[in-house]
Amino acid sequence: MSKQILVLTGAGISAESGLKTFRDSGGLWEDHAIEDVATPEGFAADPELVWRFYKMRYQQAEQARPNAGHYALAELEEVLGEQFHIITQNVDGLHQKAGSKRVLEMHGRLKRCFCTDCHKRYEMSRTDLSLPVPVCDACRSVLRPDIVWFGEIPYYLSEIDQLLRNCDLFLVIGTSGVVYPAAGFVLTARYHGARTISINPNEPANNTHFDECIQSKAGDFLPSFVAELKQQVLT
Ligand code: OAD
């Protein structure tokens, strides 16, 4: 039985909760240009447009409920405790809503924003979202969503590196494998001896790096897979 299980998730795990992915057909990047809504330059050029995009996503995420995939991972953490961690590229908070605690949100979170000048942090729920561009209570500068944009450095990279070096099983769920550094994590985990498995109904771009690619939806596959892993731990 694997000792340390590490999971990396992407937008695909939340697809069955009704949230759009980015690059699938009908995905978010079909109607929105990455450079307009997911870069510091886009925000500088049109903060109202960027705020409209993230207010919409925040409201959708608030209404979304975790699905069987999220719940299965939370159940596994209950059994494994410190031996189980999730790294997520998702900003929707659904892992935590399902009960997961050891979650590193490497691309930020929709439920927070911060001041572009003094860096004071705010909960979206306590921010005046009726303003086209919300402002800081403390210094009146513009607030921005707490999202890591293209060209910025993801959060928790040193913690993530430690987890990748020490895991025995690395599961990568619902990510297209095109956005770095996350797309390269499989190589680090594998180099340090982990078994690596991708779970995705389609082939991710980095599929050749995995020991095994399981072509399935997260919500279909994870409940039985997790039940099996739990069985191995408990017997
Ligand atoms: P993508 O939209 O690039 O990829 C979603 C993946 O989920 C695809 O490979 C789908 O095949 C897969 N998928 C769809 N439905 C699924 C299901 N039910 N179960 C499992 N997998 C499913 O999303 P990400 O890879 O998460 O960054 O995108 C990575 C980053 O690019 C995001 O964090 C975001 C984006 O631009 C920023 O905004 C900074």
Helix content: 25-40%
Shape: globular
Structural class: alpha/beta
CATH-defined superfamily of the largest domain: TPP-binding domain
Strand content: 15-25%
Rounded to the nearest angstrom, the radius of gyration is 18 Å
Task: Summarize the structure in words.
This protein folds into two domains: 1-19 and 66-107 and 154-235, 3-Layer(aba) Sandwich (Rossmann fold); 20-63 and 109-147, SIR2/SIRT2 'Small Domain' (2-Layer Sandwich). The chain has helices spanning 12-15, 28-31, 34-37, 40-45, 47-63, 68-80, 94-98, 157-166, 185-191, 218-234, and strands at residues 5-9, 84-88, 103-105, 108-115, 121-123, 143-147, 169-173, 195-199, 212-214. α8 packs parallel to α9 (185-191). It is built from ten helices and nine strands. By secondary structure, the chain is α/β, with parallel strands linked by helices. A six-stranded parallel beta sheet has the order 3-2-1-7-8-9, with helices on both faces. Strands 5-4-6 form a three-stranded antiparallel beta sheet, covered by helices on one side. Helix content is 37%, strand content 18%. The structure holds 2'-O-acetyl adenosine-5-diphosphoribose. 2'-O-acetyl adenosine-5-diphosphoribose (OAD) binds at residues 10-13, 15-16, 21-24, 27, 38, 89, 107, 148-150, 173-176, 179, 200-202, 204, 217-219.
